[in-house]
Amino acid sequence: xxxxxxxxxxxxxxxxxxxxxxxxxxxxxxxxxxxxxxxxxxxxxxxxxxxxxxxxxxxxxxxxxxxxxxxxxxxxxxxxxxxxxxxxxxxxxxxxxxxxxxxxxxxxxxxxxxxxxxxxxxxxxxxxxxxxxxxxxxxxxxxxxxxxxxxxxxxxxxxxxxxxxxxxxxxxxxxxxxxxxxxxxxxxxxxxxxxxxxxxxxxxxxxxxxxxxxxxxxxx
Length: 220
Ligand code: ADP
Ligand code: ZN
What we know:
Elements: E1 2-7, H1 13-24, E2 27-30, H2 31-41, H3 44-55, H4 61-72, E3 81-84, H5 90-101, E4 109-114, H6 117-124, E5 127-130, E6 136-138, E7 157-158, H7 165-179, H8 181-188, E8 192-196, H9 201-213, H10 216-219
Parallel strand pairs: 1-3, 1-4, 2-3, 4-8
Antiparallel strand pairs: 5-6, 5-7
Helix pairs in contact: 1-9, 2-3, 4-5, 6-7
């Protein structure tokens, strides 16, 4: 089962992708997390992508494609994966289709989490994230129970350097110009499952489960 989670920054795709991966027993591959890990470690990849990630620009396609396709070839990914943050433009989507086709595989479904632009801007400004499990805490609407600590795992909360107002605007602009066309690309293939992204994490999660359950490829 190969499922892509598509949506703007702040749509909640990371949280939902992680939950679905756990439910279906699939590996969750999040491109942004892989880049942030590399930056934190200060390795060669991290040095290459730091300036892009921190200013809200897309990392070069060759790099993004390599960073995603490499873990996908691991033995624990042979039954499929949940992709989150990749593909982010048509070139990446086509590269992914080609790589899967070489193994007689294909994307099964694309879960598109739709959220209004106004709501996205609200969610992203001032958001804190758990360093350990990546759970986001929009500072005003849902503060953690213990200050600076994650409710779920007790991890330390931090602010992503690319969650500043100016960079948020940039990331949304990049999303609408580069990534949004993928909605049509997958709709034309009959693979798009559109889900309303407003409401609680649990509500949106139920909508996603319902959308996936209605599909024969999941029911088996
Ligand atoms: P968000 O969806 O909230 O913007 P991500 O964690 O998915 O956050 O991505 C953070 C940053 O990592 C992006 O702004 C971009 O710089 C880089 N990035 C992530 N995935 C890709 C990709 N597939 N191609 C190019 N750059 C990427
Ligand atoms: Zn946590």
